[in-house]
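Treating backbone geometry as a discrete language has practical consequences that deserve illustration. The sequence in question and its structure tokens are set out directly beneath this paragraph.
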Amino acid sequence: MKFLAGVVVGIAIGAAGAVVYSVQTGQDLRELFAGVRKNLEDVDFDEVGQRVEAGVSEVEARVEEGVTRVREKAAAVAGDGSEAAEPAGA
């Protein structure tokens, strides 16, 4: 029962927010929704996919560079031993 009450309250708050937005901006929400729908229909999803793929590849390359640097530092410390921590109380 509490769930249904929450759903009803949520719908009411959403509707009230839509009315307040419409009054404050002076725009009809149906016109605004039609504009958003048109923008979504005009989107070239292949281009968006290529941009996302390029961004992911760039991030992947940066992460790989960071991992390589960390591994090199770890190998230097392990092989060298000069940067090892001193015992407590020394």
Q: What stands out?
A: The longest helix spans residues 45-80. The chain has a mean pLDDT of 85.
